[in-house]
Amino acid sequence: MNNRFRAAGFASLLMLTSQPLLAQPEGERIEELEQRLNQQQQLIVEQQRVLQELRGELDALKQQQSNESAIQTDVLIVENDTAVVVEPQPVQRSWTENIEIYGFAMADMIYDAKRVDPDWEDTLRVSTIPTADGQFGPDGNFVFSVRQSRLGIKSSWDTSFGEVTALLESELFGVGEDAGQTTPRLRHAWATVGNFGMGQYWSNFMDADVFPNTIDYWGPTGMVFYRNKQARYTIPLDNGEFAIALEDPDTALDVGKFRDECIDPVGESCESTFGDVFNRWNNVPDVSIRYRAETDWGHWQLAGIGRKLGFERRDTQDRDYELGWGLNASTVVRTTERDQLKLQLVYGEGIGNYLNDGGVDLAPRLATVEGNEAVAVPLLGIVAYYDHYWNDKWSSSVGWSTTRLDTTAGQADNEFKNGQIAQINLLHYPTEGVLMGGELIWGEREDIDGASFSDVRAQFSVKVNFPRP
């Protein structure tokens, strides 16, 4: 409504209220008064609407003024008769204003038809499937676990260098020396300043979004899945990003058939074996690059990695190395508003430690000691999963993944060569922050000598997220 109309409305109201009542018959006077009363009631309604509009405009102007004052504009200051323009300073968030503690408590109930390595009984990692009857005890094993439970803290704030972030996250799934234990394990310790990040985080060679909506801990065997220490620089693009990183090298060295073979035996004794004296040697970081494109239907990503895979003999101090490389193509396609198709294809040489159950990076080429040399082991990984949401309360995930190694003649016959895993589940979300459901998992391991071994397990899990403020 314009100002002219508003003024006319007020004038009409004044005219109506100021007109005298002339001497009229009583019936006419009543009719006249009723007409004036109706007109004034209509004007009052109209003026109330005008007042509401004015109040809305005023509130909007106040909000705009408040927003503008939050970002300082150029200010002209006169100092000693000289005009000085002060550049605008953006309002910065304090780190105390954006700090979040998050995580969840998760409990798993598992029945295993076989009996995997006891240090890994909480999950089906195909390389731990037994290769002989009774290797880890009689078939059939029931497990309760809380090792997937997680706790993290993160924060972000603005500085003159750009946004600064900090992330610290751990879980209870012990590995390495703590394998099989419910002990805190560091997942992420990651800090960024602007486009630069450093610490431990998902490898730049990885696409974390490919991980399916499953409840088994370890996940697809053929997936690039590695939290690595690194320094990374990310360049934001219009519809994606490009990143380059220097990553911690950690050669997975295998001496194969010669692990227990004596070196320079003296009489009937064996002072040292090849397994004793050969050691990995890394003096150059891995270099990874990644390009990710965001689209209307999801995203696609290409990543590459180059490695110097070094090894040495502790007895002679002799050193040598091989070159490793890998390419990883992945995508997540939204087939409906919530459903997703997740695909990944990775191939390379000497990239085993970047994959779930990737085996080894370096192995002896020949089956004899004389003239032998180390080679980077070729590897292929495939992931194909589909996440489907039946409605807001129910979802399912189904898929298959495989790892295939082109092993060498120098590796032992009972070493891991190929693995595959398939999963299907039904998950329920009864209320906000709560997940419960069951999953059926099948896995198979094949060794270098061609022997294959499979396992089936059923898992039921309950997961409750910590409430967020």
Write the layout of secondary structure elements.
Layout: H1 3-18, H2 26-70, E1 75-79, E2 82-86, E3 99-112, E4 141-145, E5 150-159, E6 162-173, E7 182-193, E8 196-202, E9 227-237, E10 240-247, H3 274-277, E11 278-280, E12 286-295, E13 298-313, E14 319-334, E15 340-349, E16 362-364, E17 374-376, E18 378-389, E19 394-405, E20 416-428, E21 434-447, E22 452-465
Antiparallel strand pairs: 1-2, 3-4, 3-5, 3-22, 5-6, 6-7, 7-8, 8-9, 9-10, 10-12, 11-13, 12-13, 13-14, 14-15, 15-18, 16-17, 18-19, 19-20, 20-21, 21-22
Helix pairs in contact: 1-2
Characterise this structure:
Residues 30-71 form a coiled coil. Residues 1-23 form the signal peptide. The chain folds into two domains: 3-64; 108-145 and 195-465, Porin (Beta Barrel), CATH 2.40.160. Helix 1 packs antiparallel against helix 2 (26-70). The relative contact order is 0.11. The strands form three sheets. A 16-stranded antiparallel β-barrel has the order 3-5-6-7-8-9-10-12-13-14-15-18-19-20-21-22. It has a two-stranded antiparallel ribbon with strand order 1-2. The protein has 469 residues and is mainly beta. It contains three helices and 22 strands. It is elongated, with a radius of gyration of 35 Å. The protein has helices at 3-18, 26-70, 274-277; strands at residues 75-79, 82-86, 99-112, 141-145, 150-159, 162-173, 182-193, 196-202, 227-237, 240-247, 278-280, 286-295, 298-313, 319-334, 340-349, 362-364, 374-376, 378-389, 394-405, 416-428, 434-447, 452-465.
